[in-house]
Amino acid sequence: MSYENEPGTRGLDLAGDPLPVWPQAPSQPIGASPPRRRNSVRRTMTLEATWPQGLRGPTMIHGRCRDAWTRDPAAAPEVLAEDALEAEAQDRTIVALCSAPARPGLAALEGARPGGKFRGILNEALPGERESGTPLYLMLDDLAGTTLVSRWAWSRWFPGWATAPTEEGRKAHAAAMLGNCLGLRPGSRGIVDQGAPVLQQNSSAVGSMRNAADPEGWHAFTDLSDEIQFRRARRIDAWRDGDTIHVETHFQDSANTREGGRRALHEYLLWASADAGSGLVTAIEARAGTLPYGECPGAIANLRFLIGTPLTQLRSTVLQMLRRTNGCTHLNDVVRSLAEVPAMLERAPKEMPLP
């Protein structure tokens, strides 16, 4: 279905009510992660992109994702599962890929371009990774967003950076982006910007997601200062309270800057709950920390239509229900990542005393 037929194209939510539009793009950074919660599982993930050979060279991506169980927040967490990933991409096509622990099936992904069809290839090449909710699966699924957005990091070092050097090229780029998401619906500030000589996307200065009072709340990651670096980062906290599963997740796309420090382009904080017996979502809400355009956070209004969806089906349901102008690509990625929460909790110790 094309974007013209979607309610979001007309500025409406899935029930036909007007979507909110922010006067200015949100710029309220989420901040550092909270201390680990007692009797909870925390998944942290980073995909860090660099360009050792320059912009025309390959994008080198280093990834790490860890599931850790916290019984006592004052003690080090117990690592339940952990994967590392190394990827090389040229023009968004995977040139080389390896992981630790190794997965022989990764070779089948070389030559593929991350995106919708890539996920089908992934599920065929690595059967069971999605169902098991492995840390590796999250990173591989996130290669689509990372390879697409990561080049934005160059704009933090070169203010004159543009999507295309000619007006004709910029118009073609804007036309290709039209209708891809709510923030790029017809007439949006995003579409106007996509055709401009220099992108004016909103971004925010952000500090570390690591909490100084809880340094073991994250796995190790790097903050480079001498070369351009993009990072996609996630934190997913999950815990049970009686018959309810609770989730809090923080998502951030950021890059370092020539002057020092980091700036975020996309940032969401989301809360959800689900029935522990059926796995059905019972509540879901989100806050936008930083987004490029004022239309983007309107997508939050459609989250309520996911209530009643099984957590394990969120990856497919979100792509069907919140496609194109009915959703924000990055908010969709936040929600889709909750599909592995049941698997994360299943790996936790069975004797889970209540907090």
Model description:
By secondary structure, this protein is an alpha+beta fold. The chain has one domain. The chain is built from nine helices and nine strands. Strands 1, 2, 3, 4, 5, 6, 7, 8 and 9 form a nine-stranded antiparallel β-sheet that branches. α7 runs antiparallel to α8. The longest helix has 11 residues. The chain is globular, with a radius of gyration of 20 Å.
List keywords for this structure.
alpha+beta; 355 residues; globular
What's the total count of β strands?
9
Approximately what portion of the residues adopt beta-strand conformation? 25-35%
Distance linking N and C termini: 46 Å
Radius of gyration: 20 Å
**Mean pLDDT score:** 94
SSE-based structural type: alpha+beta
Task: Explain the layout of strands and helices.
Elements: E1 40-50, E2 59-70, E3 78-90, E4 93-100, H1 116-125, H2 129-132, H3 135-141, H4 143-149, H5 167-177, H6 189-194, E5 204-206, E6 229-241, E7 244-256, E8 262-275, E9 281-290, H7 314-321, H8 329-336, H9 341-346
Helix pairs in contact: 7-8
Give a brief description.
By secondary structure, the protein is α+β, with helices and mostly antiparallel strands. The protein has 9 helices and 9 strands.
